[in-house]
Specification:
With 171 residues, the chain is mostly beta strands. It contains 3 helices and 14 strands. A hairpin with a 2-residue loop joins strand 2 and strand 3.
C-alpha cells in the first residue's frame, strides 16, 4: 500500500568498498524504496555528468503522473535541491539542500521539485521512480530562481530548458 511521504528521506546504501572500488546489492535498494514508499519501482533512469558544476532541474511530473523518486549516487558528489510544490498555485515551500556522496540515497516525495548541482567530475546517478516518465506532464522550474537565497555552487554546465525554467513563488 502506498505511503504518504511528507518530506525527503535520506539513507546510505548497504555496500562493500575496498581497493578495487564499490559493490552495491541493488535488491537492498529496491527493498528500501518499497519499505519507505509502499510503491513499486516502475521506471529507472541513469544520469552521467562529466563536469563539476553541472546543474540539472528542478524537475517534476504533473498530476496525475507525479513520481516518488529515489536518487542514488553511484559515484561522485552533489548538492541535492528539493522543495514541496503546490501545483495549482505555482508556490513552493520547504526549500532544502542536501550534500550527497557515493553510496548516499534520498527519496523525494511525489509532490516535490527536484534538482542537483555536481560537486565533482564524472558523477553517476541512478533514479528509481514509482511511475513512468510522461513528456506531456513534464514541468521545469529554475533551480537558480527558486533557490536564489541559497549559496549555490558555481554552475558551469546547464541545459537551455533548465536555465529557462519557471520562477515560482516561495512561501
Amino acid at each position: 500500500m502506498k505511503k504518504i511521504i511528507k518530506k525527503p528521506i535520506k539513507g546510505i546504501c548497504r555496500s562493500f568498498k575496498d581497493s578495487r572500488g564499490l559493490s552495491i546489492d541493488f535488491q537492498n535498494i529496491i527493498n528500501d524504496f518499497k519499505t519507505y514508499t509502499g510503491e513499486d519501482i516502475n521506471h529507472t533512469f541513469y544520469s552521467f555528468s562529466k563536469f563539476k558544476g553541472t546543474a540539472r532541474g528542478l524537475h517534476y511530473q504533473k498530476y496525475p503522473n507525479q513520481q516518488t523518486k529515489m536518487i542514488l549516487i553511484l559515484s561522485g558528489s552533489i548538492i541535492d535541491y528539493c522543495c514541496n510544490f503546490f501545483e495549482q498555485s505555482n508556490v513552493v515551500s520547504g526549500l532544502q539542500s542536501n550534500n550527497m556522496k557515493t553510496g548516499d540515497w534520498i527519496i523525494i516525495p511525489e509532490n516535490f521539485l527536484h534538482g542537483f548541482i555536481t560537486l565533482s567530475e564524472n558523477t553517476n546517478i541512478l533514479y528509481l521512480m514509482s511511475k513512468r516518465f510522461k513528456a506531456e506532464d513534464y514541468f521545469i522550474a529554475s533551480l537558480q530562481k527558486v533557490f536564489k537565497n541559497f549559496d549555490l555552487p558555481n554552475i558551469e554546465v546547464i541545459s537551455k530548458q533548465d536555465k529557462e525554467g519557471k520562477d515560482l513563488l516561495v512561501n
